[in-house]
Amino acid sequence: EAGVTQFPSHSVIEKGQTVTLRCDPISGHDNLYWYRRVMGKEIKFLLHFVKESKQDESGMPNNRFLAERTGGTYSTLKVQPAELEDSGVYFCASSQTLGTGTTTEAFFGQGTRLTVV
Amino acid sequence: AQTVTQSQPEMSVQEAETVTLSCTYDTSESDYYLFWYKQPPSRQMILVIRQEAYKQQNATENRFSVNFQKAAKSFSLKISDSQLGDAAMYFCAYRSAKEYGNKLVFGAGTILRVKS
């Protein structure tokens, strides 16, 4: 079974440009999460999708970040325009809702390292 | 808001020895989950061990065990018989039992180096 996959693995862009990160969750996982780790700091929650709906987007830093999950499968996270402080590693994770109303553990991708210069 | 603190940016251990990684957290909730995740270089982060706060017994997974001190809000990870493959970044994480899903609060991580 394929795990959570993220594209690209690395991206270097100039300040002011646009970048789109993609996450393919594990097949059948209805929950999808985005997290971000700025160099040397904690991994911080950005948002949580349940299928195509945003369950919680309390961690999104500002309106330059747009996350979508059309059709409830893969998700994209677009940063437009990128700023220097957006540099970091962006992680995606997925989990599956169980019949009990709880979810499985979160399975993570290897992350996308974004560098804004 | 909950916070998780890992006070050791880096740790080293000799192969076959035991090492303990520290984690403290702050919460006003009584029901929650705690996790240790491992991220090897350039690879996916994987769950090492999980502890439910309502369980007094410390979780164990093969060579990995935790020392969960609820009153002290401490959750350390002990790795016994360390192996070269244990070298990785280790993250401690908290999850509220009240919230749906896997909204995790992470610490800053500890780099573990294993010397042969």
Q: What does this protein look like?
A:
The complex is a heterodimer of chains A (117) and B (116). With 117 residues, chain A is mostly beta strands. Chain A has strands at residues 5-7, 10-13, 19-24, 31-37, 43-50, 53-56, 65-68, 75-79, 88-95, 107-108, 112-116. In chain A, strands 2, 4, 5, 6, 9, 10 and 11 form a seven-stranded mixed beta sheet that branches. Chain A has a four-stranded antiparallel beta sheet with strand order 1-3-8-7, with no helix packed on it. Chain B contains no helices and twelve strands. Chain B starts with a strand and ends with a strand. The mean pLDDT of chain B is 95. The A-B interface holds A 3-4, 31, 33, 35, 37, 40-45, 48, 50, 55-56, 91, 93, 95, 101, 103, 105-111 and B 4, 35, 37, 42-47, 50, 91, 93, 99-109.
Give the tally of β-strands of chain B. Answer: 12
* End-to-end distance of chain B: 41 Å
Q: Could you report the average pLDDT of chain B, rounded to the nearest whole number?
A: 95
Beta content of chain A comes to over 45%
As residue ranges, the low-confidence spans of chain B are none
Largest sheet of chain A: 7 strands, mixed
User: Unreliable stretches of chain A, pLDDT < 50, 5 or more residues?
Assistant: none
Q: Which term fits the overall shape of chain B? A: globular
Largest sheet of chain B: 6 strands, mixed
What share of residues are in beta strands of chain B? over 45%
What is the radius of gyration of chain B? 14 Å
* Greatest interface by residues involved: A-B, 28 and 23 residues
Count all strands of chain A and give the number: 11
Q: Share of helix among residues of chain A? A: under 10%
What labels describe this entry?
heterodimer; A: 117 residues; mainly beta; four-stranded antiparallel beta sheet; 48% strand; B: 116 residues; six-stranded mixed beta sheet; 0% helix; globular
